[in-house]
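Because discrete structure vocabularies remain unfamiliar, it helps to consider an illustrative case, giving the amino acid sequence and backbone structure tokens:
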Amino acid sequence: MGRFVRPYLQSVVLAVILLIGVVAADLLIPRLTQQIIDRGIAERDMNAILRTSLLMLGAALLSALFAVANTVLSVRVGLNTGADLRSAIARKVQTFSFGNLDDFQTGQLIVRSTSDVNMIEMVVQMGMRILARAPLWALGSIVMLLLTSPRLGLIMVALLPLIGIFIWISLTRARPLFLQVQKKLDRLNQVLQENLAGVRVVKAFVRGDYEIERFERANRDLFEQTLTVVRLLSSVIPTMFFLVNLSVVAVIWFGGISAIDGAFTVGQLVASVNYMLYALFPMMLLGMMVMPLSSASASADRIWEVLDSEPDVRRPKDDSPLPRVEGRVVFENVSFSYDGKQGEPVLTGVDLVAEPGQTVALLGATGSGKSTLVHLIPRFYDADEGRVTLDGVDVRQIPLHQLRTHVGVALQEPVLFTGSIGDNIRYGRPDASDDEVIAAAKAAQAHDFILSFPHGYETEVGQRGVNLSGGQKQRLAIARALLVGPEVLILDASTSNVDVHTEIRIERALEQLMKDATTFIIAQRISSVLTADKIVVLDRGRIAAEGTHDQLMAASEIYQEIYRSQLGDGGLTSG
């Protein structure tokens, strides 16, 4: 985490300097106590008592002021580090391809951006207040103890390694257990997120009891794993207290004998006991920090797992801009698998050409690779073999931002954001005018239902578009894609929730608005693709047939079967 703390190095150094002041002031007090006892009380010197007491008060005030300033700096650095970490994770996630996001589930990323970062943030703060203070305090106390009584100082020197070894063993054993705790927290978060996102489905199928049971299992797993960690660490604090008390007994025993023999003053004995406690107290603090340190170590590993992940889709070395884009898309012997070349292929040897202005319809059974094929165009994924070109240029050689400004996408499951309807349509072009927004909405057959709301285009969209129907959300997604003015338009089953008549009106509007664009349509209804310039039938990741409707009706049994299953034999004989 050094690179996230480094920007605040000045504050860190100042905080450490303040800590040195705190420790110096604290270490002065036992020596002043010794002087009060040996010079003031023993010699009945009231002036010495008052003078030394004022010095003690001044040292205590300085310690308090330095400690407050150190705390302010520590909290500021901790909060800034946490904010930078969250921003780094958010920026990293934006570089991920769909493949990366398949590996990191939403619930995991949320926990790593919140719980894990909060743990790091807390440890950074504690590190500048306690971890940095502990060695300074311990070292200074040992030096002062050796100056006060070398023999008693040797007792402390002998005990510190034992305490250090005990703390190290505890940290080593606790860290992997905390990693499991965070994984259990991931699972709990995932179950809860699925439950809340799918609450309507849960209620519709009367599965509330099942979901409660599923949550309880995840909750119980987290509880039991956390309890395992607590059991391990429950012995740390008592053991530390035992060692501290053992040390104090040793000092009092040997120091008391020396005091009785006259080789040691009472003030020296009191000062030695205080220095012993000062030296051991940081060790106790470290013992109490075994749990947060172990948890922070596990959290740091999980955060770095995200930050160190390389995007599956890499930026091209040459970021030179494209000339004017016409929209010719070519698939050249393209093969793809979600698990890399070793996995089950989703696409195999696909060759396809889409000319500018053409409408290409993709048909096929579920799992035949239709969505995967079009997702390769804007590089949501990269082909394992072969290549996809836009106007003759491999899409892997086109800067991602530029590529995706030329490709508009409307998915089957549209994602809307909190904000107004107008803002959602403008999402791809924030500077679009009201007239342009309205034109896109009209083409997507969304204008009329938008005006039916009291606030029209200023109507607020609920979380995930909860206050809109499925068909309404799909039409807004289409309007959003159209507003970009793409040279390549992808409609991935984006009208599956729209009635036939509305779908026909959308198609007619697209014919006019996108007549120069290359359009890929993944359709659920064969009736919506009959007029496409090219119909491509996919079967198990391969192109089984392609051509116009009439050509496929004459030559493709698969297409005939699809047609017959949806429109019946009457349609077949009339085709």
